[in-house]
Amino acid sequence: MAKPIAVTDETFESEVLDSDLPVLVDFWAEWCAPCKMIAPIVEELAEEYDGRLKVAKLDADENPSTMQAFGIMGIPTLILFKDGEAVERITGYMPKKRLLDRLGPHLA
Q1: Ranges of each domain in the chain
Q2: What is the C-alpha separation between 68 and 58, in angstroms, rounded?
Q3: How many other β-carbons are positioned within 10 Å of the β-carbon of residue 26?
Q4: What are phi and psi of 78, to 5 degrees?
Q5: What is the C-alpha end-to-end distance of the chain, expressed in Å?
Q6: pTM for this entry
Q7: Fold (topology level) of 5-103
């Protein structure tokens, strides 16, 4: 059963930017209510797209360098990286269907 992996400022490059698979990164924080709402959807995506998509979570409070590097001002923010490049950015809660509508073209 695939689960999202935790990434940090230190592991971001190796786990996300250098990944052979597309990587969906969930930038979140413990105190963020919308982050808690989208978390189960992110976990479902990790399971459903196992082998085609890597799913990672980055704690915004503990990893300010990566947050700043990608200009993230609000959470939750989901960024899909493909070949080391950010190809899709979603900020705020979004139902699974709308999320897949945005991510799907990049995962085909």
Answers
A1: 5-103
A2: 13
A3: 26
A4: -110, 130
A5: 22
A6: 0.96
A7: Glutaredoxin (3.40.30)
Amino acid at 17: L
CB 56 within 8 A of CB 25: yes
Instruction: Give the DSSP H or E segment for 35.
Output: helix 33-48
Query: Could you read off the pLDDT tens digit of each residue along the chain, which spans 108 residues?
Result: 789 999 999 999 999 999 999 999 999 999 999 999 999 999 999 999 999 999 999 999 999 999 999 999 999 999 999 999 999 999 999 999 999 999 999 987
Helix (H, G, I), strand (E, B) or coil at 104: helix
Main-chain dihedrals φ then ψ at residue 106, nearest 5 degrees = -85, -15
Catalytic residues: 32, 35
Dist CA 70 CA 2 (whole Å): 26
